[in-house]
Amino acid sequence: MDKMLLVDDEADVRYSFERIFGADVDLHTAGSGEEAIVAIPRVDPDLVIMDVRMSGLNGIETLQRIREFDTKLPVILMTAFGTTQTAIQAMKHGAYDYLLKPFDVPKLKEIVAGALKASREMKQKVSHEPLLESEDYDLGIIGRSPPMQDVFKTIGQLAGAEATALITGDSGTGKELVARAIYHHSDRADKPFLAVNCAAIPENLLESELFGHEKGAFTGANTQRIGKFEQCDGGTLFLDEIGDMTAPTQTKILRVLQSGAFERVGGNEPVQVDVRLIAATNKPLEEAVEAKEFREDLFYRLNVVRVALPALRDRREDIPLLIDYFLRKYSHGALPALQPATMELLQNHEWPGNVRELENAIQHALVKAKGGALLPDTLPPEITATPATVETPHDDLPALAGKLFRWARANPERRVIPAVERELIINALKETSGNQVQAAKLLGITRATLRKRIEKFEIKRELSIG
Ligand SMILES: Nc1ncnc2c1ncn2[C@@H]1O[C@H](COP(=O)(O)OP(=O)(O)OP(=O)(O)O)[C@@H](O)[C@H]1O
Ligand SMILES: [Mg+2]
Q: What pTM value is reported for the model?
């Protein structure tokens, strides 16, 4: 369970935190900044939430003292209205975020969840060697196939350098994992790592999220805000889904990369930062450049070193290793046995969702197996489905429909939809030797519908089944 240290001299606040977070976090408390400094090494919290105004050391002084021995621990500061200026100072001293009192509970929960995630990401080391038994690493990048060997080599080269990296690969291939591995092996490993998913933030808010804004910069900008670049000064910023940025944001990123300088939105005073950027995308950026949606100069600046992650179907020899890894990760106690038929299905699946899909499939199977052997029917349906359903050429369907339509135009008397429907049903029934349940499943219709169509089209007589 995540450990949270609440630093506040008011008992009321402690009670409300206990009520809000209850059994979800392991809540520790300290009554003053001095107490917090002693408590942190002992408690080893994942997150500190601290009031700014306290007798003795105030929140900002305490934060500065914490930063002398821990540069990464996320600290959220709480402040009453009217003292946001102080909180902004605190952000510059490396606070993770700040909250205004009285709390908006959903907002509080959201910020705490974000900080705990950031904390985990900074703490969990990512190995770039497939060390299953290693105690040192909580997470591994598994793979021995030649394309993964190349990935490991590049991670190693990047780790000792300060170069910007561009990670590419389809969804679920491990881009985020690789970004974290680069960070953990870099000279900045003891500095913060922050991740921003550009696609998850509305376009018009992304620039302010990254670069901050001045008070009054736009409607709703009631206070100054410090952006991720400034917050991450000295550390590593991971920009995920980099293809989703407006032109002005791209221009600003290019400038930070070139000179380390930017202005907050609505501001004209340059801010200087030292941030290492790691970017990732699952869209072909070259095409976006071609279409003039992505700045070419920014693309080249990001693409200094490229880590291209292979699709799982292109490194099938790693599938057994990954299965073993996820079984160890998610099964408690004895490792369950995997039936050869189950293994064969896993080995032959297309894996459109790549490693994430495989990870989910193993978790699914473990739940379904309830401690027994992993039989094929413990796998998610899209993996056990017969090739006939899997190989449906979705992409060719419009082409096929086009052909059918031309045929229909030439033979209007045949009434194309019923005719096609009838043929499909006959095929499905032949394939399943007349098993209506299976045939309906193959066709994606209910059994009742299938039965009605069989009547309507008088199929039984033709196949002499039933
Ligand atoms: N080589 C690997 N070894 C072990 N686990 C992996 C590997 N690659 C990916 N994973 C796991 O698969 C899941 C998806 O990985 P990750 O989030 O890094 O993918 P992604 O490329 O960022 O995907 P998306 O484009 O959808 O954001 C994570 O749980 C990750 O730990
Ligand atoms: Mg990702």
A: 0.66
Evaluate whether 362 touches 323 at the Cβ level (below 8 Å). Answer: yes
- The pLDDT tens digits for 167-200 are 999 999 999 999 998 888 888 988 999 999 998 8
Closest ligand to residue 323's CA: 1
Kindly state if the Cβ of 336 falls inside 6 Å of ligand 1.
Answer: no
CB of 425 closer than 8 Å to CB of 411? no
Ligand 2 centroid – CA 175 distance (Å)? 6
Residue from 298, 194, 186, 200 nearest 237 by CA: 194
The answer to whether the CB of 167 is under 6 A from ligand 1 is: no
CA 176 to ligand 1: nearest atom: 18
Query: For ligand 1, is residue 174 a contact (CB within 6 Å)?
Result: yes
Q: Could you tell me if 46 and 1 are in contact, meaning their C-beta atoms sit under 8 angstroms apart?
A: no
For the segment 264-291, the average pLDDT, to the nearest whole number, is: 92
The pLDDT of residue 26 is 94
In Å, how far are 2, 159, 427 from 446, measured between CA atoms?
46, 55, 16
The tally of CA atoms less than 13 A away on the side-chain side of residue 216 is 1
Reading the block at residue 194, the tokens are 């922050």
Sign (positive or negative) of CA dihedral 357, 359, 363, 365: positive
What is the residue with the minimal CA distance to atom 16 of ligand 1? Answer: 174
1-24 confidence digits (pLDDT tens): 999 999 998 888 888 898 999 888
Residue 132 CA, ligand 1 centroid: distance in Å: 17
CB 179 within 8 A of CB 121: no
CA of 85 to the centre of ligand 1 (A): 39
13-53: pLDDT as tens digits: 888 898 999 888 999 999 999 999 999 999 999 999 999 88
